[in-house]
Write a structure and sequence with these properties.
Blueprint (H helix, E strand, L loop, with lengths): L1 E4 L14 H9 L3 E5 L10 H7 L2 E3 L2 H5 L3 E3 L17 E4 L7 H10 L2 E4 L14 H18 L21 E5 L3 H13 L2 E6 L2 H11 L3 E5 L2 H9 L3 E4 L14 H4 L7 E4 L20 E4 L2 E4 L9 H22 L3 H4 L1 H6 E4 L2 E2 L2 H6 L5
Parallel strand pairs: 1-2, 1-4, 2-3, 4-5, 5-6, 7-8, 7-10, 8-9, 10-11, 11-13
Antiparallel strand pairs: 6-14, 12-13, 14-15
Length: 361
């Protein structure tokens, strides 16, 4: 099969769909991989690295896109819509629930779109979302600590505090992978940490993980309001697979936060759980609303592309090999991949997306 790897076009997105080591595996399986020139440079991979692994370097995005299977990291942006073809396999993060236009275009163009974020194991785990969730969770604290600095517009709070001065207060909404990794980093820095979640069993698991180092609270409106109003750093880590994230923090809650506090909503690519937060970019990552610093970069792991590309490929490669070997029939053989199918033959397939967009079903 011919496999295309275009250069990512999202602002400062330096990850790449396939690493040279993944290309080598595919080449050894008899497949031809076409990589757009300089697609991997931002992640530390040269065109020569790809050529040595067995790839062919192509000079245009069109040449990379014009293949049976296209492997990316982020969803196609509007200039790329023209490259979508009937029957073409597209394997990438899509987050269609938050993007009506892309959903309409994928249906119209007849592409077979398989989303990393909805590939699902029998136990409900999301294996292709997890590696980036780990990175985004850890980055959220690293970035939050930076923007709490006064020179960055923050309150001037050191998360870990110092002897004689209390530490910063970190509130994490959601105790899944992102929230757990955020809490792990915040605890390591010495911050005071609260996690709020509606899953009591998950809270019990987090207690076994963190003990008394993290305050674990059941997530309901009054509890959220009290925690948010006192937070120096608020992390949105709410995930409802395939759906838009629910708004848990209305503007009135944000208005109670101290000036210079920071909000980072990792769920922004699914719509976000904070009413006042909208998507930003790596070039312009923050803005002030209600005197609070808002950070809404939807591709946070793109800030560490060398790590993120390899972590993502470690998880995606077995599925890419399946798709390359069997084409669309891989969806019949592998129930995990079948869960990832969002759009096929001009139809919206995923049941959650059918609920989100009933007029397209």
């Amino acid at each position: 099969m011919e496999i295309g790897v275009p250069k990512e076009t999202k602002d400062r997105e330096f990850r790449v769909g396939l690493s040279p080591s993944s290309v080598r595996v595919l080449a050894d399986n008899g497949h031809s991989v076409f990589v757009e020139t300089h697609a991997g440079v931002g992640a530390g991979f040269t065109d020569e690295d790809y050529q040595q692994a067995g790839a062919k370097i192509v000079s245009t995005a069109k040449a990379a896109w014009n293949r049976d299977l296209v492997v990316k990291v982020k969803e196609p942006l509007s200039p790329e819509y023209q490259f979508l073809q009937p029957g073409q396999l597209l394997f990438t993060y899509l987050h269609l629930a938050a993007d009506r236009k892309l959903t309409e275009t994928a249906i119209e163009r007849g592409v077979c779109a398989i989303a990393y974020e909805t590939v699902e194991l029998p136990d409900g785990r999301l294996p292709l979302l997890t590696p980036m969730s780990v990175i985004a969770g850890r980055l959220s604290i690293q970035i939050g600590a930076r923007f709490l600095e006064r020179q960055q517009g923050g309150r001037g709070v050191l998360l870990g505090g110092v002897p004689g001065v209390k530490p910063g207060h970190v509130v994490v909404l959601g105790g899944g992978v992102v929230g757990t990794e955020a809490a792990r980093m915040a605890v390591g820095m010495g911050a005071r940490v609260q996690i709020l979640d509606i899953n009591v069993d998950r809270l019990a698991y987090l207690e076994s993980l963190f003990g008394s180092r993290v305050e674990l609270l059941y997530s309901e409106s009054l509890q959220i309001e009290a925690a948010v109003s006192d937070a120096d750093l608020l992390i949105g880590a709410v995930l409802v697979p395939g759906r838009r994230a629910p708004i848990l923090v209305p503007r009135s809650f944000v208005g109670q936060m101290r000036p210079g506090s920071v909000i980072i909503d990792v769920a922004v690519d699914q719509g976000g759980c904070v009413e006042t937060l909208h998507p930003t970019s790596h070039s312009n990552p923050t803005y002030l609303e209600e005197e609070v610093v808002h950070y809404g970069v939807p591709n946070m792991p793109g800030a560490v592309p060398w790590t993120a590309t390899q972590a993502l490929n470690n998880s995606t490669l077995p599925y890419v090999v399946e798709l390359a070997n069997s084409g669309v029939k891989a969806l019949e053989k592998d129930g995990r991949l079948a869960k990832g199918l969002n759009v096929h033959q001009h139809q919206l397939i995923h049941p959650v997306l059918q609920e989100v967009f009933p007029d397209m079903s």
